[in-house]
Amino acid sequence: MSLNRRQFLQYAGALGALGALGSQAALAQVLNPQRMQPWRNWSGVQTCLPAQQITPKSLGELVSVIAQSTGTIRPVGAGHSFSPLVPTDDTLLSLGYFGGMLSHDSETHQAEFGAGTSMALMGMALNDVGQGFINMADIDHQTLGGAVATSTHGTGIKYGSYSSYIKGLQLVTASGEVLDCDATRNPEVFHAARVSMGSLGVITKLTMQNRPGYRLRETMWVAKTEDLLADIDKHVSENQHWEMLVITHSDYALAIALNETEEPATPPVNKAESGGNEFVTLLEKLDKYGSDFPSARRFLLNNLRHFATFDERIGESYEIYSNVRSVRFNEMEYSVPAEHGPACLREILQLIERNDLPTWFPLEYRYVQADDVPLSMFQGRDSCAISVHQHYSMDYHNLFAAIEPIFWKYDGRPHWGKLHTLNARHLEKLYPQWREFTGLRESLDPQGRFLNAHLRSILGA
Asked: What residues does the FAD-binding PCMH-type domain cover (predicted)?
């Protein structure tokens, strides 16, 4: 069968029935008729029943909402964060009307977007004006504001996160003040707000540094994980963007390389005719019936490479970067110093195998360039980002709890949008400018109006 990266990522499991919050919603309506709209994130692991969900239509209306509301205000994007950044009993604030390209500059290759813009729409909009992202994550469902707030990233040792390419932003503070920020206007606020988890106020628009539009060639191959790690320096230096998806309980991984090309685009893949569903079903059954026979499972997984081939794809950059994630999961991700990536991954794989930990999603292994953003996971160091996934219908707590201490051993910094257990006491030691950020946050929002329980814990407020 012939598979592309999108279909390979979908092998992670069966498509279960969608979870629901019906009983919670019904109870909430009885107790408080105003709480009519429960909220949950994409995976279903985070939920809340806010007193109000507001979608202001203009900057003036947004300022009024902040001034008139009481209690906690939490901006909400596409709900693609797994950590509890959004949940509150008070006010959820959507920037759904703050979307689209607002301006662009063909000479500097910069473009300004509303913070509520879906990143799935940005690639095409940039392409229409001759621009393209410098780098892009492999999921494009997030809003721009949410992706920047959590330092979301793609892969490539010479490429930073979205936050590192922000050149300007507008922030509405707890007092209702509107601050236009860049390297010269309110530079201290700008410096910190590029990764702030919505704790400094509400970002309404952002200016992003881009580049001329371009095409990418995607090349994939299956190889032994140890062979890929042995040649890791070669892979990351000879490819603009390189990553691997390590198949747990096996000896193999899928390597993915993206490189710029001027060759014409290949025809789009028809997923309905590609055989992807057949591959999903096969791996689904292996997990269901093979987990009691680890040796047989490893043998079968190792030999699945004989059943799949991967065709090269060429297309506009935004089409190649992004993937369809139709199977829901929960995720933990840490970034460790780049030089420790292979050792950290090996320990995780050894632990999974030694304890026969129940997981069948691939581990995602990527590289990200250092930046200077105070609360970026990549502040001051080139990093290796390692992601651990668990199907949304399976309990993730034991798996993540077993693996997380390995990340700590290598001074790992958790992805702000992914699940982790660290609080301010631990996090302060990982970020040299931690106190400067928290001091600025307190000066902008002394009453903590933009902090929910999770943010109070991780920021020490």
From this structure: 46-213
